[in-house]
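During the first year of the project, the team set up a workflow for recording each protein of interest as an amino acid sequence followed immediately by a discrete structure-token representation. This format lets reviewers and collaborators read both layers of information side by side without switching files. As required by the reporting guidelines, we include two representative entries from the current panel. The first entry is reproduced here exactly as it appears in our internal archive.
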Amino acid sequence: MTRLVAALRGGAWLNATRARDYGIILFVLYLGGFAAAMVHNGAAGHGALDFTSFYAAGVQSLRHAAQVYDTAAHLAAERAVTANPHLTYSYFFYPPLLLLVLAPLALLPYWPAFLVWELGQGALYVWVLRRMAKRSWPIMPMLAFPAGLWAVIVGQNALLTTGLFGAGLWALARKREIPAGIAFGLICLKPHFGLLIPVALLAGRHWRAIVAATLTVLILAAATVPLFGFHVWPAFIHLFIGAATGIYGAAHVPPNWLMSPFGLVLALGGDRAVAWGLQGAVTVMAAILVAAIWRNRDHDPAARAIALLSGTLLAVPVMLYYDAEPIALCLAWSALAARRGGWLPWEKSLYLAAFGISFLAPPLRDILPVSPFLPLSVALMALAWRRRMVGFDGFAGADGYDPPLRETSPTTR
């Protein structure tokens, strides 16, 4: 037992070669799994994808954009684009900003649009990882992170959001605040993911990034008015309020699927008021921790990145298994920091646990009483705080951070 604990604490068993090879193996298996899922889902007529809602919204936006937020009209559009009169999935709670992306996709047939949607997101995600790693092989574990696979299979947008987060954090670490602000501003396409971004930027006094992010949001919002009409905004707000009070936390979405304190309380049979109270307390605490770590601009950029990403996962009440893809960015930043100063005790074991949870949680979501992603997010926030305490002597720039998962000896600190 002592030897096992020592092995898990030091993590010498997970070296660069094994991490790379495991990533390649998982990625190949995922390709097979993706192909099998597509065959199982069949043609677009089955409509068994979240992308069906995105595509239908794009089609509607080209005709009568406000009907995107009419549940009955949206369901009819989904049934029309899939030729499936029995389809029941009808949820679209995204702001009109996302229609700027979905409307051009709707000019393509269903499956070509799906491929463009996924390949475009994947290209952004790979580009960000490639910029961080500076080589191809070290990014394989992050490409093989299971949450990304689940997102691709159902046609979700997790790779897009994660890629934008990654681009913003990397640009900010290189002191390029305007590109960072633009990337952060684009997260308004899925706005609840940006909940703690203002906290981080204000605490870090990144004024140019704040201005760039604000202008990005305002320009995109303004662009929706001549394209889709101002009336899409009241329609969205009305539907969003109804969704917040009636969809999540009700029978429509099982609470044990939600990876948040809000979902935890509901999954354990607690009252909604208690769930919102705990969620509010955790959100405030996450904001305080993020602000404390971002307050010192000389802190390790890995600690700042992991804090913001894990804090977001803790602060947002509605996140499902495919929304866990930002955890892969936490692992990437962790590996980058380890290349410079060594791995912290238990850090590699946390790395492996993240993969295991992300892989097993979705297929077991109807069996598990609560989501295992919540303790994982807490552990990642603790890792960010630990890296903050270790200290950092300044960021050397893009060429000063070597690829992740290169061979290093565990730190003794």
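The second entry, processed by the same pipeline in the following quarter, appears below.
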Amino acid sequence: MDISAPIYELADRCVKCGLCLAECPTYNLLGTESESPRGRIALVQGWLSGQLETTANWQSHLDHCLLCRRCERVCPSRVPYAEIMDRSKALLAKQQPQHSALQGQLLQQLTRPGAGWLFTAARLLQKTGLLWLAQKLRLDNLLGVQDLLAMLPELKAPFSPKRFYPAQGKPRGSVALFQGCLSQQVNAETLQAAIRLLNRLGFDVHIPPQQNCCGAFALHAGNEQEAAQLASANIAAFKPLDIDAIISLDNGCSAQLTEYTKWRDGENFSVPVTDILPFLARLDWPQEPLFRPLNKAVALQVPCSLRNVLRHDAELLTLLQKIPGIHLPQEAIYTRCCGAAGSYFLENPVISGQFRENAVNSLTQSHPELIISSNLGCALQLQAGLRGKNNKIPVIHPILLLEQQLSDS
């Protein structure tokens, strides 16, 4: 069987109309056809037909893609561009196995079960000041891990979840929370806030301990086998639970979980999988005011995974507008790619840095007191950019903000 045949069929949907060009971040930054969705599809078609060789230059054009999927929003032919890129990278990995650089290998280790000791070591280095000293002496550059360490926030205590958190008051449903591979270590406060908010709204919350990384890092790197193994493990972890839905806190994980059926055959989750933002936005909310007024100017970064894959950015705004007094002008909403894009910030640090600079400059232009982002990778990217400018504006998840503003009644 020719495993490249599905890629041919998907790529043939592209009529090369060029509507994607204006939407593509790399095309607008680098200005060449090969850095556009249309151009990359043409490169893949040439490679599959044998007209192009797999040179480093050819592959770099594929690697420069952020997979932001803005192109898919405007494509009249509904070309599944991300699927073409993922399948092409998987085929390329089978033909030419490659090993990622040290930073990429470390990131992969951080997303796997048993990575807690690495975070414990990082916390110790931060607490003793040794990490700051190593960066000051530029030892991180010598080791080649400067970009990964630059993204590392101040690490607080990790989240050690219970298996079950009962609803407050009259129960209205039962859900399971997908916590992701990194949130437990670097985003514990938001996970706890999500549980409290769901409990307050009447939902029992289950957290199966056997869950793993969603598989996005592996899939986008061309490792379909590892991604499929992670998917199978997650499906098995949630299967025994008597629940109404599986809820994901991070938009990137949500996008991956909801697209399991696109790239793997066989068993899938037995209940609906949804991002927490549309889940909450569609609920029947209590009539009485649930949130205290905020009375702060905020800026909002809308992650690509939420806007272009899940397409639930409207629900995010609906939720934020439930907070009285919140000041969010249209010009303070940023919908372009921030450049984090999974492991992209490690693989293409210069390009990623330019997108981060654009995002930070735009988001701080309105002088907000708070920046909101619903994707962990985006939040870490923005925090790193703000630290580089000695700017202490906090970047928080909208769920954390909602929970913080909950009234006591």
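For the second entry, the following points were noted during internal review. The two ends are 63 Å apart (CA to CA). The first strand starts at residue 164 and ends at 165. Both points are flagged for discussion at the upcoming steering committee meeting.
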